[in-house]
Amino acid sequence: MRDEEKYTNTEEQLLYLQKLLDEEDTAALKELFTELDILAIARTLESFPAKTRDLLWVYIPDDVLGEVLAEVDEDIRADYIEDLSASDVEQIVRGLDAQEVAEVLDVADEEIKTTVYASLDQEIRAQVENLHAYEDDVVGRYMDPETVNVKQGVSLEAVQRYIRIHHLLDDESQQIMITDKDKRLLGTLSLIDLIKQPQEAVVDDFMDDLFTLNDQMKVSDAAALLRSKELHFVPVCDSDGLLVGQLNAADVLEITQDDADMTLKHMSGVSDEEEVFTPIARSAKSRGIWLGINLLTAFLAAFVIGQFEAVLDQIVALAILMPVVASMGGIAGSQTLTVVIRGLALGQLAGNNKRWLYNKELWVGMSNGLVWALVVGGISYLWFSDPLITLVITLAIFINMSLANLSGVLIPLVLKRLQIDPALSGAVILTTVTDVVGFLSFLGLATLIIL
């Protein structure tokens, strides 16, 4: 690769890759994909639409294709696997660990799964089947089933010898698990203690305090715990305390990233599977559902407006100012909603602090409501020179912004209690509330004060 064609960031890399594709420079394309690591290849594939990805697959080295497939988004993996035979998939997953095999086979049909299962090493097959037995949204589905564990009462010297003979440690192993004869987790041993402590000592003497995750815990709850404790390695146990796997730094990062990604998508009414280059039909379908729901809520707001047709017919200024009321309430509520959903994701809201949050947001809403109500009222008076219209919009802005802040707290907390993801439907409900309250207060006050 010539020096002037070297890239220094992701955008330059994409531009360079597009240039090579336009020039059909196959030698340079092969060289580029040989230089990139697994994660970089996966992110590169995700940065192109399906037709371009089809051209790029042929340049990925065969020995890393399985790892790349395990890393890319699920819909991209499914599109690629769809055209492969069982023997092709067998070849791809050969040499992969259980987590990677499980990711690849997740999108394969049952016939291919059965055939590939039969070709796997017995231990890997058991681990893959165990991973596939978990629901997609629990910790067990993300964990690494391969652990380095030793029995209690063993000397540090024996542990070192055991690890060297069986080549157990890898780049991701950070601690050694200590279990009893039934594989019930008792504690963990750090690699530092394994090396620096007296070798005749037993592992029990240097066991660290336990923090574990249950394999059936919801991954969103686990993400909040991992963020709050800043953990990079966690043993995973079942309900009986038996060690079933571990979360390494990469697994922890994947959980937190997936949780943040899902929250962001849900707040905009986008499905979990949609990415930047998801096909048109798939994107349109996934977004259309929430657009339809939003349309229903919009008609509800329109119905409220329709009840005040008489006052709108007489006073045109009300129709001009009406969107201001709804907009100010919507923004105020969205600010609160975002803060509360983040607090829920981080596990910061529970018990008595919810009451404090209600009070705080009510006072924030009233404070901002008062300030901006006076500002809007002043502008309205300068515009229409009508003190009654000024009074109506001032009161309506104050009421809507105060209640919007309160709704921004109440809605996600209620949805959470009902076991509904607040990020998924909170914004739609909040928009409906602020629109209805805004129009009702504005037009209701106008009817009472002006007519």
Task: Note down, in words, how this protein is organized.
- The protein contains 21 helices and six strands.
- It is mostly helical.
- Strand 2 (175-179) and strand 3 (185-190) form a beta hairpin.
Runs in which pLDDT lies below 50 for 5 or more consecutive residues are: 1-5
Number of DSSP E strands: 6
Taking the alpha carbons of the first and last residues, their distance comes to 78 Å
- Biggest sheet, spatial arrangement of strands: 1-2-3
N-to-C SSE series? HHHHHHHHHHHEHEEHEHEEHHHHHHH
Beta-strand percent range: 5-15%
Structural class: mainly alpha
Which features characterize this protein?
three-stranded mixed β-sheet, globular, 451 residues, disordered N terminus
Explain the layout of strands and helices.
Elements: H1 10-23, H2 26-35, H3 38-45, H4 50-57, H5 65-71, H6 74-81, H7 86-93, H8 98-105, H9 110-119, H10 122-132, H11 139-142, E1 149-151, H12 156-166, E2 175-179, E3 185-190, H13 191-196, E4 213-214, H14 219-229, E5 234-237, E6 243-247, H15 249-267, H16 280-306, H17 309-314, H18 316-345, H19 353-384, H20 387-417, H21 422-449
Parallel strand pairs: 1-2, 4-5
Antiparallel strand pairs: 2-3, 5-6
Offer a quick outline of the entry.
The chain is mostly helical. It contains 21 helices and six strands. A hairpin with a 5-residue loop joins strand 5 and strand 6 (243-247).
